[in-house]
Structures are given as C-alpha cells and as structure tokens.
Specification:
Length: 144
C-alpha cells in the first residue's frame, strides 16, 4: 500500500509536469519526495532535518559575521565548540530570537540584516518541516 501511494505521488508529479501553473503543488511534491520519499523513509527525514539544520545555521552564522570567511583551516566554524553550542541552540525551535534581535540591533549592512532574518526564519521552518516529515514516515508502521 505504501509503495502504491509513492507510485501514485510520482505519477501525480509527472502529470503536473505537463500542465502550467500549480507551482505550489510541484514544490510540495518535490519536498515530500526529497525529505522522506513520500512517507516511506524516516532515515531520509532525519537526514533532511540534519542537513537543513547545519545548512541554515551555517548561513545564519555567515551573515552574522558580515559574510566574512577565513581560508585558514583552523578557523573553520565547524571545528569550534562555540559553533556547535550555538547550533544546538538553533536546532531547538523556540530558541534564538534573543540572539537574532541582539545581532540585528548592531550596526550591520542591510544585506547582512536581511540575510540573518531570512535564514533564521527559513531555517526554523525547514527544521520543523523535517521533524514533521520524520514523524510522518515513522507513522507508516502504524498504518499497515
């Protein structure tokens, strides 16, 4: 039944390719396939959540540092303990608004401020979506 549902979603996606419009449906179907294979893979949901977490937090940190990137290997953000403590705080959905407002109150370029706000919001949405997709893929075991 689950494979039938996956094939049904894939055929619906192929049907949407031939029609104009329906951009929202195409995006949702693509995200659903990418994040958990239409509800079949909880592992893909976990990987999607982790990818969204690290990607959006790294983009957020990059915009906090005014898009400065050091080529020095020892200065890579991923190797610093402070990076991971802040990243874990970012993973917890209700956390981080205080830090965001503090960073926005500093004198920054408008591009950095817009990037901070948008990566923060999009990151929280992507993490929540990944958690939801993981849970929905786990629920497949109760439906059979």
């Amino acid at each position: 039944a689950l494979n039938y549902r996956k094939n049904e979603m894939n055929s619906f996606k192929n049907e949407l390719k031939s029609t104009k419009g329906n951009c929202e449906e195409k995006i949702v179907l693509w995200l659903n396939n990418f994040s958990n294979s239409h509800g079949l893979s909880w592992f893909k949901g976990v990987c999607f959540t982790l990818l969204a977490w690290v990607l959006f937090f790294s983009l957020y940190e990059w915009s906090v540092n005014n898009f400065y990137f050091s080529s020095n290997l020892g200065a890579l953000l991923l190797l610093h303990q402070e990076y991971w403590t802040e990243a874990i705080s970012f993973l917890w959905l209700p956390q981080g608004l205080g830090r965001l407002t503090e960073n926005l109150n500093l004198n920054r370029s408008w591009l950095s401020s817009i990037s901070m706000g948008s990566t923060f919001i999009l990151g929280k949405i992507a993490i929540a979506y990944g958690i939801y997709q993981t849970i929905s893929a786990f629920r497949k075991h109760g439906k059979i």
